[in-house]
Amino acid sequence: MPNAQIVGAGHYVPETVYSNEKMSTYMDTTDEWITERTGIKERRFAKKHEETTTTLAAHATREACKDAGISVEEIDFIIFATLSPDYYFPGCGVLLQRELGITKTEIGALDIRNQCSGFVYGLSVADQFIKSGMYKTILLVGAEMHSMGMDFSTRGRGVSVIFGDGAGAVIVKATEEENSGILTTKLHSDGTHAEHLAMINPGSHGGYHLGKEHFGYEEKDTPGDVFVTQKMFDDGLYPNMTGQLVFKNAVVKFPQVIQEALKAVALSTEDIDLLIPHQANLRISQFVQKVLQLPDNKVFNNIQKYGNTTAASIPIAISEAKKAGKLIKGSLLCLAAFGSGFTWGSALVRM
Ligand code: UT7
Fold it and tell me: What is the pTM of this model?
């Protein structure tokens, strides 16, 4: 059975930097509040009407292909993780295929909707496809363009100061090398708190969970008019987050799912060469580091520069860590993520 190895990584972040001070010109917030609660100092936002989630992903992909020493034509399956797609449908996988100029149709494209844990879920899917022999060269990309769908007024400050735009990509390839590549992945979900980190509009729910009056629907005899209503537009089509609930769950699940993966392959925290946690909040990463008793040089954080880029945060960090020489052959890389759903997961990769 072949193993699945990460053979190349790339990333792209938009040029324009938005500091915390700049954010405070749009809403009632301060550099002090954002730094203290999240560790974030700045983030990047894409160019309106010029860039899309897919174009960010295309830059990251080209860099990942170059790093892997392959041409885009060699990719035989695309996995695209995002919560901020170009369109409601079709997903970004096929749009990326087109953007990259891949004209062959002997290729599959799959979109993953697992938000912050989308990359870890995607890595697990890539691993299974490669181990089963179905595909040999998989592009896994995580990309987000949050800036197009956030509330930049004071009403939305609890969400909009945290998230940033960017894309990261890895090439996962079959290898016959033993004890190499993805050693294990662990995935979890619990839908109990689904609406506590969510963007529920537009959608088919029609008030199913929250009560029709919440949406102010006018009852009609004809079907339709539920997906997007005038009231939704009036309220604003924005994500919402119960920050403290997410935080409390994250700091428990991150260490749990890391230990679970280590146990599955009979390794321990001392064996980890580099932990890349999903960049949700620097305070969460620091908490996880403390619980696992890892030294600073074994935990990679870049949220200070980019904010939380959701599905893109782990592959951006892999790309940066690789460039910085932190992921050399034989290193044990540990990935972990937690977020909306809730969904969470981990992966151990022998580079
Ligand atoms: O990757 C996806 C997963 N997401 C996460 O992991 C996020 C997890 N949660 C968090 O990171 C934190 O909960 C936040 C950073 C989102 C919020 O920090 P917090 O310490 O939990 O703050 P809070 O939501 O309890 O709000 C505290 C106060 C409130 O004011 P009052 O009610 O105490 O007067 C908020 O209105 O801070 C206020 N506030 C702000 N003030 C200035 C909320 N956002 C801001 C802001 N600037 N941007």
Answer: 0.96
Q: Which domains does the chain have, with CATH numbers?
A: 3-175 (3.40.47.10), 181-194+240-350 (3.40.47.10)
Please say if 116 is a catalytic residue. yes
Is the shortest distance between the CB of 280 and ligand 1 below 6 Å? yes
pLDDT at 112: 98
For the chain, give the number of residues. Answer: 351
Catalytic residue among 201, 278, 281, 302: 278
Position 199 confidence tier, pLDDT thresholds 50, 70, 90: very high
**116, 146, 201, 334: which one is catalytic?**
116
Q: 294 CA to middle of ligand 1, Å? A: 27
Q: What pLDDT, on a 0 to 100 scale, did the predictor assign at position 75? A: 98
Q: Is the CB of 161 under 6 A from ligand 1?
A: yes
Please enumerate in sequence order all residues whose Cβ is within 8 A of that of 144, keeping only pairs 6 or more positions apart, or say none: 53, 56, 82, 83, 84, 163, 164, 165, 166, 167, 309, 310, 311, 312
pLDDT in tens, 63-120: 999 999 999 999 999 999 999 999 999 999 999 999 999 999 999 999 999 999 999 9
B/e letters for 106-130, b = 16+ CB within 10 Å, e = fewer, are ebbbbbbebbbbbbbbbbbbbbebb
Please give the number of the atom of ligand 1 that sits closest to the Cα of 29. 47
Task: Find all residues with CB under 8 Å of 2, minimum gap 6, and list them.
Answer: 130, 131, 133, 136, 174, 175, 176
Could you report the per-residue pLDDT of 23-75, keeping only the tens digit for each? 999 999 999 999 999 999 999 999 999 999 999 999 999 999 999 999 999 99
Q: Is 16 helix (H, G, I), strand (E, B) or coil?
A: coil
What does the alpha-carbon distance between residue 266 and residue 315 come to, in Å, rounded to a whole number?
Answer: 25
List C-alpha distances in Å: 145 to 14, 55, 129, 337, 342. Answer: 10, 10, 28, 19, 21
In angstroms, rounded to a whole number, what is the distance separating the alpha carbons of residues 297 and 113? 32
Active site residue 334: no
